[in-house]
Structures
1.
Amino acid sequence: MALELDFDICISECCDKLQFCDNTCVFDPNAPVNCQDGYGSIGNPTLSQIGSTLFNWILPDGTTFNNVNPLFLQGLSASYSLQITGGVSGNIAIAINSTYIGTTFFMTDLAGTASNLVTSINSLGLGTGWFAYIDTTDPTLTTIVIYNGSVGTAYNNMSVLVDTDGTMTTSWLVTDLTANGRDGSNCFDVELTDLYSATQNPCQLTNYPNFTDGVYTITYIVFNTDGLEVNRKTKKFFIDCNAKKCLKTLIKTLLDDSCGCSEPDPRIVMLRSKLDAANTQFEECLYDCAQETIESVNKQCRNFCLDCD
């Protein structure tokens, strides 16, 4: 199954910063129905197997930036893998950094015992912060992945203790530590200086530091740890932040009575209608029309005269 990427962007109230968020679903072995084509689904790489990302941007005026590298990788949780390797009787108890996280006894077979241990860990998860699932890449279904509910490096390098009795054996070693946690989230902020190179000074733009209103095309590309492209996704977004700010300023000027106006200015109503029309055109995939309309709204709003003497 191919990885189906999804992402979104939103713009700050000041129109000078975009936030990109990777909304691709992440496979949860404890609730597999919730993600059929995301990270970690059958045949797809896990988040830990994504080694780098790149972005292609097309701005409303046609300016293109290819292979932009913001060094973006999503955060990961610290984890530890344990395999139940043998036994026909006995108990298993696990502690991480001296915190007891779960226990079980031999039940039917090793796979059943592993499943029961996962259930025990997850039942205590809200209190301990540690959760678990069966690693389905192990055909014996006897390998358990234990992970922390918080993303980041804070839970790396914590000592793992596995206590067994009876005939139970595991892959645990006395020196084992938690690992693989990585700081970060699924979002990052973008400013114009992140797109323009040293030879293309964004400060020379008339709208700097604000992003121009209009239609943006963004391509999100992910690569595995071997540097091979996994998949890419292209989406269009419509930004009308500057037009909204301009209209709010006009309305505020009217409301503070500095112009002595008691009735809504029909020209502002018209501009508001044009802004709505631009959004409708974008939603209907009339991208050129939406671009022309939003440019017209911004031009009229900038040159708007309230006839205040």
2.
Amino acid sequence: MRRSLLLAAVVGSLLASPALADVTVRYRAVIPEGGPAHMRENPPALTISADGTGQARWDMAAPVPAGEGGASPPSIALITREGVGYFSLNAPGGQMQIVGRVDDAFAIGAQFATPVLQGPARETVRQVMSQRVEIIPVGPEIVSGIQGNLYRIVIVTGETRTPPIEMVVATDPRLAPIGREFVRMVESVRPTVVEVARGEPQVYTALRAMLSLGAPLRIGNEMRIDSVSTEDVPDSRFTLPGPVLTRAQLQGIAAMMTGMMQQQQGARPPGGPPATPAPPATPPADARNPG
């Protein structure tokens, strides 16, 4: 990776940042012409709101398939309040809602993923850990009327180089709180990545460096920023929508869903990898809802 980029990321994180202000941004997926009509008319979207006290909320919802006009799509919200990250998962049609702590979800995910990534998928992990990343600054680019800088990212595996992946990051100070939220999200995932992969892949290090430079405006031709609002964000937007489940309760749900998927898949073929066992129960976490 270019040392200059890493140096810029470190220096940027140490310099004084502008004061936090309320801001809401909307990203949308870019669906190709051959994609499903309902997705082109109503592409998947990501909305992020942040306020001056450090609270934030991410909302992601899938588009409603054709013929299901009245159904609510599956969605997930990530809410940060009082320095703690929470998630709210809504099943299609609003039939089930799960609210929990993000760190509990990552811990449970690591328990399920570790046996696979350090067993059948160990070679894949080894290849990822051996990859190098080159980040090439290109120059200014405006996306949806917002100023940013374009970078091209190339992943090198042995003698193989991927086609450049383009990423535009914002230089507009209005988006500084959104950039901080991306950095906070990536940093929250880092302990789990390091634990599961037994180290930090350079691909992940490069992502952290890129997001330290600013909020993304465009990622390839797949996602781009759609709108920015600097209107006040009401506190109610950061209220948790239900009681927070304990880690033990979340583990029980994860084990139940895993069992259901294994039943649907049927018995494994001879010589196939064994089913991933449910992780052991842990003492309940604090289940109080601070909302």
3.
Amino acid sequence: MYNREKIMQTLKNIVDEANTIEPYVIIAQPKRSKDETCIQSFNAYGLCHINLMGFSCGYVDIHGEKVDVARNYLIERALESQAKYLFFIGDDTALPWDAFINIHETAEKNPNSIIVGVYYVKGGTPMVDVKDNIHIKVANVEPGQVFEVWQAGMDCMLIPIDILRDMKKRDEDLPFCCVANGIEGIPFVGEDNFFYHRVRNYGYKILCDTNIQCLHVDMDTGRYTAHPSVNLNHYFTNIDITDSLTIEDKMRLDKRWHERIPNQQQTS
């Protein structure tokens, strides 16, 4: 016969031991609304829609804030930890099951670089731009490539936290992200543009791994935009994926996007 008290004590010891382990990666999500269901879940000890098995991980989110405020808050939370990586994932961005395994492998092969996956503007082109001499153009995002990018979205991005610590040390009074729109003659500048500009100026590379192909999903309809090669069987989601977004969806989505842009009186 086994001793129940010894079994329970061993289980409690395991829990206590686990509480001494720091996350290796922190998943961070800025969410539009507390009441809205995200396209995927990332609870490593429960429902998790990407493969994080074997990695200690944490999760942090924020609801209802402007996107630059939200990202700054999430980065500051990650800096309080001893994690190695921060993984930004959008609340409407669906990653394939093996996304973390692939993006982590690329990060380990390219230390001191930020790695992004591929996702598209809803109803549009990939949010991955490269610099060609004096021009900026949309990158070729066919799977099987790793290349340096000039600009990208931030909703599938793995960042070594040491880079964030260095950025904070160099300019402690400068936010990581900032959105501007018509302020003192400055045209629209997104929080991703602001962040990547800082990253490049500090000499760090931004690399895109095109084996990580995401779905950018309109959560009201389940429609998405992605590379034509995606296999929907590789994505686990909270919302049923229906079909691709069409031009008929664009006016509604653009209107919603513009309504969320801070105006001249709203600065962060």
4.
Amino acid sequence: MTMNNMAKLGSIAALILVMAPPAVAKNEPPELVTCDSSIGTIALIEGSNAGWTEWNLNSPRPLLNQLALQSGCFTPRSPASQEPADFLVTAIAGTQEEIDQSMEVAKGAATEALLRSGAASSVLGRVPFAGSVLGMFGGFGGKKKTFAAGLQVVSPATGQTVAAGKGAVSKSQIKFKKAQYSWAADAAGASGYNSNKDGRKLAEAFIIAFNQVVSQRELIEAAAVSAPAPEAEEPRAVVAIDTVMRSGAAADANEVRSLRAGTELNPTGNREGLFIEVADNYGTTGWVSVEDLQ
């Protein structure tokens, strides 16, 4: 890796530190972040670490959909929509060690994605301050049973991780039964997590992870803007029978090369009568009768 790239990686790592949310005071319950506008549509995916099943809990998808809607930060993709989601969000849950390991991998992938996409410099130029908080990936200690949850945001355009967040709770701080936390009770209730202590702890862990993901909004948006536009698929023509490529659009034109059935050709867009101009994978150009193509 060049010194320039190493410097960029260091800057990106610093930026991830900067944009991690401020540490919540001990014993202070988290509040759900809010956004003036949606970052984009999301499709939720259950990861391989589905710890909720071990705790006899349901999928966190309804919970996360509620958090997205209540915060206004993301728009859950409608199953009826013909448009793909802007981002894929993978949810995982498990022991603190399992989630720590997964999140470290996600953090590294996000850093590499920003470097490769060229988004790092554009985001770094807009950050007016520095910080030193990496609580989103830090240890949570304690001897009590810890419920850990993680979220990983992936850009479908590049397949790269662009943000990640983690929460771990050994003792729930959110008072789900109080009116001021009705938003948390509604979100937890969507997945049936509001009925027992384990569910409420996991719900709080996902709320923390969600807040951390949203705190990286600039990273997510910059990576999305810098993602290359999908290339239009080249039209292909497949030879149906053994035939020949000719130098002109006529049955008696000189033979350029023979073509076996199944050969794939690239049409150039030129056509004369029953003949189209094509190019093979070696760059040879000629004319083939459409009657000889699939």
